[in-house]
Specification:
2 domains; Dehydroquinate synthase-like, alpha domain; 8 strands; two-stranded antiparallel sheet; six-stranded parallel β-sheet; 382 residues; alpha/beta; 15 helices; single chain
Length: 382
């Protein structure tokens, strides 16, 4: 059976941020807590948001979202929410603040206790109800797609990086204003852009039946492939920024089909205690060529369709995988896990954790722990 759900209200265009106050009123949020991070504040984007809100609107700010949002950060933001007597959330930033806002929406409205009770892998989907606090998402990067996703990726107190997910966590409104991405640094543009590429690729390869999502994924991949270099090298290119934000949103609309082995591996890698802080999009870029080769054994025609969407003359599996690796290199991203600072000693534990990740179940080719270990070894120093 195919479950097809597209319900988030989206305002998408340059200048869309000006509609924020109107959209908050429609949702019924009158005392918002803005969840963001220090980088977004330093970039002046919080000031942009405050400027479009009524001066008398009681709004509070939580700016301590870590690069990989944690259960501890959820508790801290939830305390800020209660202290302000908030009635809703605004997630402002990349995937981390948007995801943290969703997790807070659960924490402040559901029975207290360890956050793992709401993890998808722990049966949490059924425990999250419509009582979740409303949230509005304002992305400032083009990669995560969290603004139209029902999931939040959180590092639990026990070290696992899991999805807290439910249709009740879908943002009520997504304000997608490419203007907010014009100042994004090149490497962050590249890394988040490759995250969007990977979302579209893995969604399309997922074995679940959803032709609508398949069409969206191919369109999103085509847009990202055509514009990611321009957006990275010429950050003020408005067309490229618009296209990358659309590709990012499409990737998340498509991955309701599920993701795959890239994310099953990237999630536990991203949960490794810092240092180094491993950026999710960069991990995806490193892992993607190897997983595409692995999956091509069972879905060669789908891999070929990816190549066609990318405009490749040669759409055989190896050529498609090589194109992903070459594009990441062109963007200045590291080529291996070793170059990112991952130590070989953690690889066995990562392979074991990947088997328990929710994305493992929707990889098109069944993977064993030994398969994951082999993929990691290849990606470590390929």
């Amino acid at each position: 059976m195919a479950l097809i759900t597209y319900v988030t209200r989206v305002q998408f265009e340059f200048g869309a941020l000006a509609l924020l106050a109107e959209e908050l009123a429609l949702v019924g949020i009158r005392r918002p807590l803005v969840v963001t991070d220090r980088g977004v504040v330093a970039a002046g984007l919080w000031d942009c948001v405050r400027a479009v809100l009524p001066a008398d609107l009681p709004v509070a700010l939580f700016a301590d979202t870590p690069p990989n949002p944690t259960e501890a950060a959820v508790r801290a933001a939830a305390d800020a929410y209660r202290a302000h007597a908030s009635d809703g959330l605004i997630g402002l930033g990349g995937g981390s603040p948007l995801d943290l806002a969703k997790a807070v929406a659960v924490a402040v409205t559901h029975p207290a206790g360890p956050l793992k009770q709401y993890a998808v892998i722990e049966g949490g989907l059924a425990r999250i109800t419509s009582a979740a606090a409303p949230n509005v998402a304002i992305p400032t990067t083009s990669g995560t797609g969290s603004e139209v996703s029902r999931g939040a990726i959180i590092v639990l107190d026990d070290g696992r990086k899991v999805s807290i997910g439910s249709p009740h966590l879908l943002p009520k409104v997504a304000i997608c204003d490419p203007e907010l991405t014009l100042g994004l640094p090149p490497l962050l543009t590249a890394a988040t852009g490759m995250d969007a590429v990977t979302h579209n690729v893995e969604a399309y390869l997922s074995p679940r039946i959803n032709p609508v999502a398949d069409a969206i994924a191919l369109d999103g991949l085509a847009r990202a492939w055509r514009h990611i270099v321009r957006a990275t090298e010429h950050g003020t290119d408005r067309e490229a920024r618009w296209e990358m934000m659309m590709a990012s949103m499409e990737g998340a609309m498509a991955f309701q089909k599920g993701l795959g082995a890239v994310h099953a591996l990237a999630h536990p890698l991203g949960g490794i205690p810092a240092p180094p802080v491993l950026h999710h999009g960069t991990l995806n870029a490193v892992l993607l060529p190897h997983v595409v080769r692995f999956n091509a054994a069972v879905v060669p025609e789908r891999v070929s369709a990816l190549g066609a969407a990318m405009g490749l003359a040669d759409t055989r599996a190896e050529a498609v995988a090589e194109a992903f690796a070459a594009r990441a290199a062109e963007l200045g991203l590291p080529a291996t896990l070793g170059a990112m600072g991952v130590t070989r000693e953690v690889l066995p534990a990562i392979a074991a954790a990947a088997m328990k990740d929710h994305c493992h179940a929707t990889n098109p080719r069944e993977a064993s722990e030994a398969d994951y270990r082999a993929l990691l070894e290849t990606a470590y120093d390929a």
